[in-house]
Every structure is written in structure tokens, then in C-alpha cells.
């Protein structure tokens, strides 16, 4: 509004100076007219000079940062020349990161040969590599007639790792219950029993024998012994815009790491599988050795070639997946190949839990042994999944 008002005032004064020249003339009138005529030209030249001479320096505390982990961030506005820079504003990247204690409305003035330094904290919202800090600069002239915006030429990039979260439940389901359910579904109850011991699963109590003898007895389990749990991470990239795929990819990795970290902390054998042109298998180690697993998972690449058809074909070639006790599927999209994969897992007697990252819930009514956990890309795993 201020700029529009000043332009109107300038134009009215300029028109009056033209009228004054036409009616009266004289040195004062011509001087006034020339000053008003040259004013926008001088303002434009001033803006051009500031654009060429003004510098910004930015620094991030560390090259590699973690999602939602505040890191020190500082920047300096520098004027190394004998003219004053007025009306400078900086605009920050806000889609994938946020700056604390600073906003885009602050206007800075730099006297000749001075600098302004600011230090604050920066938080990255998603895993990936992207620009952070100052996005663009806005310069206004002294008379506030013109304003120019331009992209910051001295930007910095952040390499952001996914957040590692410790959870015990997901989508209202305790992970321990999910594991126990899968173990129960993959075995058969034997006719043999032993005396009940506190801590035994109450579902296996032989109530008919208790009615006869008055002693609690636990039925023993037999059947095929299966290996650990398989965690399949979807690395398919859906969409082309960063605003579209970054939040989903971040939550896929965050969920996969949280599930694997649960197994690691509880010494449950597990292996993680994902596509990187071909199927890659990572063993989930115990908690003290989990860091190396986390570092490898942090560097997973997503791509449009890693579609569910390729995932289905690769899973079908992995006998070790079908020898698992259960499967966790971390997915960000749903199609007919996903249904086919779940069907194959069911036909092989495998219980599956689908962690679906997205706003829409897929239809799983045709899959009797499949559990579903819906997660929004904006969910906080430490809160939203434990409701």
C-alpha cells in the first residue's frame, strides 16, 4: 500500500509540474519538473547498484542433518561499499524447512561498510537433499517507488537423514501383538500340554483339561519353524514434484526404520528388503549395531522404475521372504500388483501387516490374514500412531 500511495503522489506532483511549466515556466518550475522526472530513474539505478553489490553469506552447523532435529544456522548481510542499502528483506525456504525466531517481514538497513549477522536454529522437515535458508531477496528504493525480488545466488543445500523413532505400537496395534499373532497363525496346536506358567499366552490354555483336573495347562505349539520377520520397503517414486514425493518418501523410511528399530531393540530376528534396480536385503542387527543399518537405509534412492511390478517379481524370487514368520509391507501407493503380492503371501501361509503411507485407505477386504495401518505423511509416529 505504501508503494502504491507513493507512486500516486509522485505522479500527481509530476502532473502539477507539467502544468506549472505550461502556465508559468521559470527556473524553479523547470527544476521541480526535472527532479520529479529523474526521480524514478535514480531509484531504478539505485536498485540495480544494490542488486550488483549486495552479498549474503550463510552457514549451517553441519553438512548432514536429521529430520526434526534443530541445527545452528547463521547468515550475514554485507555492505562493503560507501552507499547505504535500504529496505532489504530476505525470504526463507518454508516448504521443506523452517527457521525459528526469524520471519520474512523484518526489513534491514545496511550503512556503508557494515554487516548484520543473525544466528538461529533451522529444522528440516523431510529426508532428502534440497535447498534451505534464504530463498530470495527483496530490495526497495529510498523513495519506495519500486521493489525487485530475485533468487538468492548464494544458497546452501542440506543433506537430510530420516528421523529414527522408538515406538512400541502402530495404528492402535502393539507390535508385540502383531508378532505374536503371526507366530500363532503359522503353527498348529499339539495335543500335548504342560502346566501353566505365569507369562504364558492365555489363548493356549487348555480349558477342557482344566475343567477335568482343576490345574491350568498350556497346550504346546508344533508345526513348521520359520525364520525372522521380513520388512519390505517400497522405493517407488510417485509424482514428479518435490512437494508431492518428498513427504511420502520421508514417512516411508521413517516408518520402516521405526519398525526395524523395534525388532532390533527386542532382539527379534528381522531383515529389510528394498529395490535399488535389484532387490537388496539388509539384516536388522541388535540395537548397539543398528547405526550402520540406519546409515545404509538413510541413503536409499527412490525412483519411478522401482514400481510394484518389479517389486512383485523380485519378491517371488526370494525364498527367504516366504520362509519368514511374517511380513511388514511399507507402501506409499496401491495397485493390482500390490494385491497380487498380498495374495501370494497369503497362499504361502504368511501373515502380512501393511503400513500404508497416504491419505486414502486401500481396500483389503479380500485379504483375510492382512492387517492395515494407515499413516499420513504429516503424522507424528510418536503420537498419531499410538492412538
Question: Could you write a compact summary of the structure shown?
Answer:
With 387 residues, the chain is α/β, with parallel strands linked by helices.
Q: Would you give an account of this structure?
A:
By secondary structure, this protein is an alpha/beta fold. It folds into four domains: 2-51, no CATH class; 53-161, Immunoglobulin-like, CATH 2.60.40.10; 169-182 and 224-386, Rossmann fold (3-Layer(aba) Sandwich); 188-222, no CATH class. 32% of the residues lie in helices and 32% in strands. It contains nine helices and 21 strands. The strands form six sheets. Strands 18-17-16-19-20-21 form a six-stranded mixed beta sheet, with helices on both faces. Strands 1-3-7-5 form a four-stranded antiparallel beta sheet, with no helix packed on it. Helix 1 packs antiparallel against helix 2, helix 5 (242-265) runs antiparallel to helix 6 (290-298) and helix 7 runs parallel beside helix 9 (336-347). The model is unreliable at 183-191 and 222-226 (pLDDT under 50).
- Treating each run of at least 4 consecutive H or I residues as one helix, how many helices? 9
Residues in helices, as a percent range: 25-40%
CATH architecture of the largest domain: 3-Layer(aba) Sandwich
Q: Please, how many domains? A: 4
Helix-strand topology string: HHEEEEEEEEEEEEEHEHEEHEEHHHEHEE
Q: Kindly state the number of beta strands.
A: 21
Spans of at least 5 consecutive residues whose pLDDT stays below 50 are 183-191, 222-226
Strand order of the largest sheet: 18-17-16-19-20-21
Gyration radius, in Å: 32 Å
| Mass-distribution shape | elongated
Please, what is the oligomeric state?
Answer: single chain
Amino acid at each position: 500500500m505504501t508503494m502504491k500511495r507513493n507512486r500516486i503522489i509522485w505522479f500527481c506532483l509530476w502532473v502539477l509540474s507539467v502544468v506549472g511549466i505550461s502556465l508559468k515556466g521559470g527556473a524553479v518550475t523547470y527544476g521541480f519538473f526535472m527532479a520529479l522526472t529523474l526521480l524514478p530513474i535514480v531509484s531504478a539505478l539505485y536498485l540495480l547498484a544494490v542488486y550488483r553489490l549486495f552479498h549474503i553469506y550463510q552457514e549451517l552447523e553441519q553438512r548432514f542433518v536429521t529430520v526434526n532435529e534443530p541445527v545452528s544456522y547463521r547468515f550475514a548481510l554485507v555492505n562493503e561499499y560507501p552507499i547505504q542499502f535500504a529496505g532489504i528483506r530476505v525470504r526463507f525456504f518454508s516448504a521443506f524447512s523452517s527457521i525459528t525466531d526469524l520471519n520474512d517481514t523484518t526489513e534491514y538497513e545496511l550503512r556503508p561498510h557494515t554487516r548484520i549477522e543473525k544466528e538461529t536454529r533451522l529444522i528440516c522437515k523431510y529426508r532428502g537433499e534440497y535447498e534451505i535458508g534464504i530463498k530470495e531477496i527483496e530490495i526497495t528504493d529510498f523513495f519506495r517507488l519500486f521493489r525487485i525480488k530475485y533468487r538468492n545466488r548464494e544458497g546452501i543445500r542440506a543433506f537430510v537423514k530420516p528421523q529414527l523413532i522408538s515406538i512400541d505400537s502402530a495404528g492402535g496395534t502393539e507390535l508385540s501383538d502383531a508378532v505374536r499373532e503371526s507366530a500363532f497363525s503359522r503353527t498348529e496346536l499339539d495335543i500335548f500340554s504342560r502346566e501353566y506358567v505365569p507369562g504364558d499366552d492365555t489363548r493356549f490354555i487348555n480349558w477342557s483339561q482344566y475343567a477335568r483336573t482343576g490345574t491350568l495347562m498350556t497346550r504346546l505349539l508344533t508345526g513348521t519353524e520359520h525364520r525372522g520377520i521380513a520388512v519390505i520397503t517400497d522405493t517407488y517414486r510417485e509424482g514428479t514434484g518435490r512437494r508431492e514425493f518428498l513427504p511420502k518418501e520421508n514417512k516411508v523410511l521413517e516408518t520402516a526404520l521405526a519398525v526395524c528399530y523395534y525388532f532390533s531393540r527386542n532382539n527379534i530376528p528381522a531383515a529389510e528388503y528394498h529395490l535399488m534396480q535389484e532387490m537388496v536385503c539388509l539384516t536388522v542387527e541388535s540395537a548397539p549395531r543398528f547405526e550402520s543399518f540406519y546409515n545404509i537405509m538413510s541413503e536409499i534412492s527412490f525412483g519411478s522404475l522401482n514400481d510394484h511390478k518389479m517389486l512383485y517379481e523380485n519378491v517371488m524370487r526370494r525364498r527367504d521372504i516366504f520362509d519368514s514368520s511374517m511380513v511388514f509391507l511399507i507402501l506409499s501407493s496401491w495397485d493390482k500388483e500390490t494385491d497380487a503380492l498380498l495374495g501370494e503371501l497369503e497362499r504361502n501361509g504368511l501373515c502380512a501387516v501393511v503400513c500404508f503411507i497416504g491419505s486414502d485407505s486401500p481396500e483389503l477386504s479380500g485379504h483375510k490374514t492382512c492387517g492395515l495401518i494407515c499413516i499420513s505423511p504429516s503424522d507424528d509416529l510418536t503420537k498419531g500412531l499410538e492412538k
